[in-house]
Design a protein that fits this description.
The longest helix is centred in the middle third of the chain and has 38 residues. The chain is built from six helices and no strands. The chain has about 160 residues and is mainly α.
Length: about 160
């Protein structure tokens, strides 16, 4: 009687929704434009780990904020600390431009995400609209704030979008 059936059947395998991949790609574009300072954080983390100085716990807990970075530019990890602080400052200026110029689109995006937390891909149109506004605001008002990798990355995204 049912000897061949598993006691706990495995759940059916889910097939990834292609819209979710599009959503992830759109979010990756935001990471490039707004620049999370990953490269600078990694360099600073590597330095303080190597020299056993600084606030390692603050970095890993997500508590690393500009006010917590040692700014002794002549200290052991001074160069990487200064680079991280400069990245944070530039990132905050980009965020200010987005808040100032794209606030209503950001609110629509946030509302959509709250309403569709289990299906964020449904917010792809909102993400795309907010991304376009973000890029336009930065390019027209403060092109000097675009991350170094932005040009290379947007060329790649434009190529992928045209396929």
């Amino acid at each position: 009687m049912g000897a061949n059936l598993p006691l706990f059947p495995s759940p059916p395998k889910s097939i990834p929704d292609p819209r979710f991949k599009e959503f992830e790609a759109a979010m990756d574009k935001f990471d490039v434009v707004l620049d999370r300072c990953d490269r600078q954080t990694a360099a600073y983390t590597e330095c303080i780990n190597h020299h056993q100085v600084g606030d390692i716990a603050g970095i890993y807990s997500g508590g690393m904020q500009p006010q917590n970075v040692s700014v002794d530019e002549h200290g052991t990890c001074g160069k990487s600390a200064v680079a991280l602080l400069q990245c944070y400052e530039r990132r905050e200026l980009r965020y200010d431009l987005v808040r100032k110029n794209c606030g209503s689109l950001n609110e629509l995006y946030e509302t959509c995400m709250m309403e569709n937390a289990r299906n964020p891909e449904l917010c792809l149109p909102n993400v795309n609209d907010l991304f376009k506004c973000t890029v336009a605001a930065i390019e027209t008002q403060r092109p000097d704030l675009l991350p170094e990798s932005f040009g290379k990355t947007t060329a790649r995204f434009k190529t992928e979008e045209s396929k």
